[in-house]
Amino acid sequence: MMINGVIFQKLQTLDETLIELRSLGQLDVAHLTGDWRTRRAIERDLQVLVEIVIDICQRLISLAGQTPAATGVDAVERCIQLGALADDEAYRQMIRFRNYIVHRYERVDVTILVDVVNNHLTDFDQFRAEVLAYVQH
User: Fold this and answer.
1) What are the residues whose beta carbons fall under 8 Å from the beta carbon of 100, sequence distance 6 or more?
2) Over the stretch 38-92, which tens digit does the pLDDT of each residue have?
3) At residue 82, what are phi and psi to the nearest 5 degrees?
4) Range of the domain at 33
5) Distance CA 49, CA 42 (A)
6) Who's near 97: CB < 8 A, 6+ residues apart?
7) CATH of the domain at 113
8) Model pTM score
């Protein structure tokens, strides 16, 4: 399977968004608590990253000739079944995190944002590598 144009474009957006987040360096809770602009930007960037993961999963499912997944978690599970993704709890955590941001938008815990940016951006790198390996296989 050649790399699909939509997937390629989404991976480019993923890369750009990761560059933005990494440009912030190591975050700390005290600084982020007092900086609402940066906090909102981080929330948005992280939500975009997970939406990209879900969109790419849905695209891979479609390219495999299957009907769309009903939920983000289902999309990830189906890509694991397709062999596109490793069975990694990090992917399920991404979806749960996105749901948390979307549904608890009025009060997102700063410590969670700091943890994700400082410790879990590599999960998106892993996703990217696995998708590329799958589509180029």
Assistant:
1) 108, 112
2) 999 999 999 999 999 999 999 999 999 999 999 999 999 999 999 999 999 999 9
3) -70, -20
4) 5-136
5) 10
6) 46, 50, 112, 116
7) 1.20.120.580
8) 0.94
